[in-house]
Each structure stands twice: as structure tokens, then as C-alpha cells.
Design goal:
It catalyses: L-seryl-tRNA(Sec) + selenophosphate + H(+) = L-selenocysteinyl-tRNA(Sec) + phosphate. The protein is an alpha/beta fold. The chain contains 19 helices and 20 strands. Strand 7 and strand 8 form a beta hairpin.
Length: about 450
């Protein structure tokens, strides 16, 4: 075998396309990838049917670099039909929020500096005031996610004590995060009451002892128990907790600041939880709130003070970018502009006529043999409202190898992610941004030319 045809790294660096790759990906990445590709070519020399030259090797290097770059965080067009897609970043941020984060990301800011006194300030003063205005909570802390919020709450308030919780609320969310394990990690002792489908306030009453640290409710954000079932109401639990001078912790999980009945969704709000007597409420920032990933603990000032003093608080606290994003998101609620500015809610509020128009704009110049506009159902996702369906419009691609299409779409300059159902690829338009419509039309035209027309 004539290995002399294999180009050297030096020659690859001199190649015009090689120089372009160095400029795009960096010299080190190019050199590392070149060595790996050349080793592969030498190892499998006999398997290459074409003559090996610089152009072929550069092509292999380019492909490898591109595939490696796909692992970086980048924009993705979400056409899965899941608005809060856990694997695609959950809640997309409002543009005004992203701009505020950008403005604060480079310069210094007054994150822990009181501009009125010139002395050290508190990290979340502004956020605390905004949450008081929106929820009537006395105080709050912000940590990096809701799992951290629950862990911090239990660690600070019930370490070494029993926490009474219904068996039907021993939940597991994504990534095998289980409430009983978090409770164990916090040093609290789980005291289960009731059965899987039924728990009454009397069950809690019977389990209260001198070692009880708190009563707890965990809202089943990502599942529903229906049929022959019962759970004690938050008001009942609050009255019981107060009669024994115990705190009531309400883990809302997804958590919402607004009433969702507009969309036929029955979900407890943070304000309702506090009004019904919860002493501590925990929730996520990047689900129904529509903000950045964070965990929020709202509640009584004396209880929150214990959280602020706990050693875990320092380990779990958020940086200036998350806090600025949360602060700006809360401003949108205060201005009552969530329908116009928060993507989650303007996606929810989209009419079918609008989605049909988007579908027409995308498919008007495509072959109707391959693309069919259909009515379908979307979901909120993100561990929230698992059984609530949303009417939507999707583009169904009539091709019997949907996985091949899905793979191709994910490799585009801006990856497109749809969903496969009934052996067809569906591109759900519930969450499409208007700015991406012309791009999608071009991508689907290329898909037609490169794959569909050839079948």
C-alpha cells in the first residue's frame, strides 16, 4: 500500500480549505482533528476505494470538526410540540430579559452594593420586593434550581426532624431526582402517611409527634392521580400545622404566578398557596414562570432567615446573570405584559389561524406530495401539566423513514428538532418563532431535493 499519498499535517495547514478550517475552528482543534483523521486513514487505508488526496482528507477533517461543534450549546428550532422541552432548555427567555442579561454580563454591576449608602448590599433586595408585590410573600431566597430549593429548605428547617408527607406525593422527576432521597440528604426523616391514592388530614394528625419538624405537600407537576383518590387540602394542612406550631412546606414544582384558566388549565398559583396558609413555597424559575433556571423559596420572614444563614445557601446561590434574568422576568409580570413578552404564554395563546398561516408560509413552494398540514396536539412539558393537551398545527412529512429525516434536520446550520409519531416526522408549529419561518421553508426545500425527490 502506498502511504505516500496520505498528506502531511504541514501540507494540510497550507491548503486553502485547511486555512479556512483553522480560521473557523482554531489551530489546536484543527491539528488535533487532523492527527485523528490521518491515524484513521492509515489504519483503514485498504478500505478507501478512492485515491487518497488532500481534498478527501480535508473533507473528513471538516466533517469531524462540524460534528464536534454540534456538541456546543447552540440555537435549536423546537418543533417537537413540547413548549417547555427539558432537553432543549425549558422556558425560552423573553427578548427584553435576554437584553438585560447581555447589558449586565460585561460591565460591573451593583449585585451586592447599596448605591444609596455606598456599603455592602444584599444580593436579592430587588427580587424580594418584586415577589412581595406579586405573591404577598414576606421574603425569599433564590438558588440554582427547585431541587436545591427543596434541599435547602429541609436542611435549614427540619434537619434531624420528621417531615410528614402523603405517600401519593413521593414523586420522582427527571434525572431520578426523588423527594425521599432529597429528604434523606437534608438530614430530615420522611414520615409517610395515607396510601398511594388517598390521604386525609386525619392521617397527618395521627403522625404528629414531638419529633415532627414540618408538614409538607408536593404538588404532582409531572403526573396525575385520577379516579378513586383524595388528598388533604392545603387549607386543612395549614390549620393542622398552625395548631401544632409547625411550618407547612408547599413544593409547587413548576409553579405559576398567574391563573391559567384562560387556557383551560387548573393549576395552583403561588399567591393561592400563600393565601391558603403555606409557610414556605418552593418553585422553579424556568417552567411556568417562564424565566431562567433557578429555584425560588418564598415564605415567612423568620423561616426564610434560617435559610439565608444556612451554609448551603452560599453553595447554591445564583450569579448576577440568573438574578438579572429573574428580576427582568418579574418586571414583565408587574407590568402585566406576560402574554406579549414571555414566550411560554404567547405560544400558549396562539390561535390556530396564526399557526395555519405559518404552515402556509413554509409549505407554499414545497411539493404537497411530501408535506401535509395537519391538526394535532402539543403539550406544555417540562414536568408540568402532563395530561393537558393543546390544539396545534403541524407539518407532517410523508416519508417512511422518519428517523433519517430527523437526523438530517438536526445537522443543519440551525438544527431543527421535530417529533416522530405513527412512523412519520411531524414539525409542530406551536413554538416556532416568526423569524425562523423563512429559514424553515429553505431547509425543507433542501430536504425535498436531497432526500425526498430521490425516493
Amino acid at each position: 500500500m502506498d502511504y505516500s499519498k496520505i498528506p502531511s499535517v504541514t501540507n494540510l495547514l497550507k491548503d486553502l480549505k485547511g486555512k479556512e478550517l483553522v480560521s473557523k475552528y482554531g489551530r489546536k482543534a484543527f491539528l488535533d482533528t487532523s492527527k485523528k483523521v490521518l491515524d484513521l486513514v492509515r489504519k483503514d487505508f485498504a478500505s478507501y476505494h478512492q485515491d487518497i488526496d488532500e481534498e478527501m482528507v480535508i473533507g473528513l477533517i471538516s466533517k469531524s470538526l462540524k460534528e464536534s461543534k454540534q456538541k456546543d450549546l447552540q440555537k435549536v428550532i423546537n418543533l417537537t410540540g413540547t413548549i417547555l422541552h427539558t432537553n432543549l432548555g425549558r422556558a425560552p427567555l423573553p427578548k427584553s430579559v435576554a437584553e438585560k442579561v447581555k447589558d449586565l454580563s460585561i460591565p460591573y454591576c451593583n449585585i451586592e452594593f447599596d448605591l444609596s449608602t455606598g456599603k455592602r448590599g444584599k444580593r436579592t433586595t430587588s427580587i424580594e420586593e418584586k415577589f412581595r408585590q406579586l405573591t404577598k410573600a414576606q421574603d425569599c431566597v433564590v438558588v440554582n434550581n427547585n431541587a436545591a430549593a427543596v434541599l435547602l429548605t429541609l436542611s435549614a428547617l427540619t434537619h434531624g426532624k420528621e417531615v410528614i408527607l402523603s405517600r401519593g406525593q413521593l414523586v420522582e422527576i427527571g434525572g431520578s431526582f426523588r423527594i425521599p432521597e432529597v429528604m434523606e440528604q437534608s438530614g430530615s426523616i420522611l414520615k409517610e402517611v395515607g396510601t398511594t391514592n388517598k390521604a386525609y388530614v386525619e392521617d397527618y394528625q395521627r403522625c404528629i409527634s414531638e419529633n415532627t419538624g414540618a408538614l409538607m405537600r408536593v404538588h404532582p407537576s409531572n403526573f396525575r392521580v385520577v379516579g378513586f383518590s383524595h388528598e388533604a387540602s392545603l387549607t386543612e394542612l395549614s390549620q393542622l400545622a398552625k395548631s401544632h406550631n409547625l411550618p407547612l412546606i408547599d413544593d409547587l414544582g413548576s409553579g405559576t404566578l398567574i391563573n391559567l384558566e384562560r387556557w383551560g388549565i387548573s393549576e395552583p398559583t403561588v399567591l393561592e398557596s400563600i393565601q391558603q396558609g403555606a409557610d414556605i413555597v418552593t418553585l422553579s424559575g424556568d417552567k411556568l414562570l417562564g424565566g431562567p433556571q433557578c429555584g425560588i423559596v418564598l415564605g415567612k420572614k423568620d423561616l426564610i432567615a434560617k435559610l439565608k444563614k444556612h451554609p448551603l445557601m452560599r453553595a447554591l446561590r445564583c450569579d448576577k446573570l440568573v438574578l438579572s434574568a429573574l428580576e427582568s422576568t418579574l418586571d414583565i409580570y408587574i407590568k402585566d405584559r406576560y402574554l406579549e413578552e414571555i414566550p411560554l404564554y404567547y405560544f400558549l395563546d396562539r390561535k390556530l389561524d396564526t399557526l395555519n398561516q405559518y404552515a402556509d408560509d413554509i409549505t407554499s413552494k414545497l411539493n404537497p406530495k411530501f408535506y401535509e398540514v395537519v391538526r394535532d396536539h402539543s403539550y406544555i412539558g417540562g414536568g408540568a401539566l402532563p395530561v393537558h393537551q393543546l390544539e396545534t398545527v403541524a407539518i407532517k412529512v410523508n416519508y417512511n423513514k422518519p428517523q433519517r429525516l430527523a437526523n438530517w434536520l438536526r445537522k443543519q446550520e440551525v438544527p431543527v428538532v421535530g417529533r416522530i409519531q405513527n412512523e412519520r416526522l411531524y414539525l409542530d408549529l406551536k413554538t416556532v418563532y416568526e423569524d425562523d419561518i423563512s429559514y424553515l421553508a429553505k431547509v425543507l426545500r433542501r430536504l425535498e431535493e436531497e432526500i425526498l425527490d430521490g425516493e
